[in-house]
Structure formats: C-alpha cells, structure tokens
Amino acid sequence: MAVKPIRLFGDPVLRTPAEPVKDFDKELRQLVKDLTDTMIDAPGAGLAAPQLGVGLRVFTYYVDDRLGHVVNPTLDLSDEQETGDEGCLSLPGLAFPTPRSVSAVAKGYNMHGEPITLEGTDLLARCVQHETDHLDGIIFIDRMDAEQRKAAMKAIREAEWFGDPAPVVKESPHRTFGKAI
Description:
By secondary structure, the protein is an alpha+beta fold.
C-alpha cells in the first residue's frame, strides 16, 4: 500500500493549476496507484494529484462502488444545478453547501493513454467537478457566494489542523454521502 500525506488547505500546490500529463509511463501508473491507495485509506470519494503535492492533471474516484481515474480531464456540464454539502480531504472535518451541475461528462485518458469517457450524476458528477477543480487550482469554497465563503473561512481558521506545518491526514471525520470528496 502506498498511502501518501494529503496536502491541506493553505498549501500553495492546491492553488497552482496542474500541468497536462505528457508521458503515460511507469511513474504515472505509480501516481495513480498512490492516489487510489491514499483515497481509499482516507477514505474519500476522490483525490487529485495536487492533493499529494504532484502538479499533474490526474484524479481518482471511488463512488457507488465505481473505482477509477481520469488523466487530463475535460468536462461537459449540465445546465441544471443543485446545492449540496461538500467536503474535501484537504479541509478535513469540514463540509459546506456548494453549488454544482447535476450531471457531468469527463473525457480524458486512462493511465495507459487510452481515451475514456466518464458520465455521472449526483455524487459522481459532484466528485468529478470537485477533483477537476483541484487540477485547475480551485478549491470548492471558491464556488460559494461571498457570505458563505466568509463563514467557511472562519471555520477553516478555527480548525485544529489549520496552520499545521507538517499535516498528515489519515482520516476525515466528515463524510459526504459516506465519504469526503
């Protein structure tokens, strides 16, 4: 098992847009394994490479017994939106109402460079949007209105882990539909 430390809110890597994957090689396959092992151990519904400190466009997901990954994703989102509680392994123990599209189609590649399409609604759609946001340097609280974001920032500043110079997250006490995203 290759469980890695998860970067927490405040780490600059979480605000840095990730670079497209160019080499579908052994290192990429190891990254996907590390992401998968860490996500399952946390446990979470998804995990993006920047959350492990790697600036590449890769994420894993585990929703409704569907386990997988997407490399270099692009999204097509439905116009219909819903607001639901959303958590993040990089903001452990916290969840906030966040607007998202009800359905999403992610197109990208698997770790071997083969094209894939992932279609989802509800939690899978939320997860795909959340993880792709991580690849763009966006954290889910950025999707909230100003008043909600201010309340979220207050909760973050009050969290035990905030400002920890060497954070390691092994478990998230909050689960969104059973898991943190």
